[in-house]
Design goal:
Length: about 150
């Protein structure tokens, strides 16, 4: 099961708090330059496994969001099958899942074949591989949550 690490949550909170504090200090007005210099979102989470001796190990995974255009192009490159489209899907589950995981993977950097191998591995439960995919969706589609309690 993948969970967001406490350190990653604290780091994200610190960044958001600093941005919000600066915006409040500056009267809440952003400049075009500030908007253009915003880094893409990253997400670090942990997957638990076992080592060769059977001991539990925590494996850190880091994703980096795709730009809106790259995400849309990737989605378009993996259209749903006729059956999936009839069922209301927006993408081909078998190909887009691995493609998105590969595209956002920073640590470890995974290519499409590796992400596809994970997706189809008998050692990964559906919920576990879904965690990889859901986190890939989250990093690309989440919005900025501004802490309103930082205001005076």
């Amino acid at each position: 099961m993948a969970v967001l690490e406490k350190d990653a949550l604290e780091e994200a909170h610190d960044v958001v708090t600093k941005v919000a504090a600066k915006a409040i200090k500056d009267g809440g007005k952003a400049t075009f330059a500030q908007l253009m210099n915003k880094p893409r979102r990253t997400l670090t989470f942990t997957v638990y496994s076992t080592d060769d001796s059977g001991e539990e190990v925590a494996l850190q995974i880091k994703y980096k969001a795709l730009s809106s255009k790259v995400y849309d192009d990737l989605l378009a490159a993996h259209p749903p099958s006729a059956k999936e489209k009839h069922e209301g899907a927006n993408y081909n589950v078998d190909t887009f899942t691995a493609a998105l995981i590969a595209a956002v993977s920073v640590e470890p950097a995974l290519d499409y074949e590796q992400a596809s191998e994970l997706f189809h591995s008998s050692d990964w439960a559906s919920g576990e591989i879904s965690s990889l995919f859901i986190n890939a969706l989250r990093v690309c589609n989440a919005g900025l949550d501004v802490p309103f309690n930082a205001r005076d």
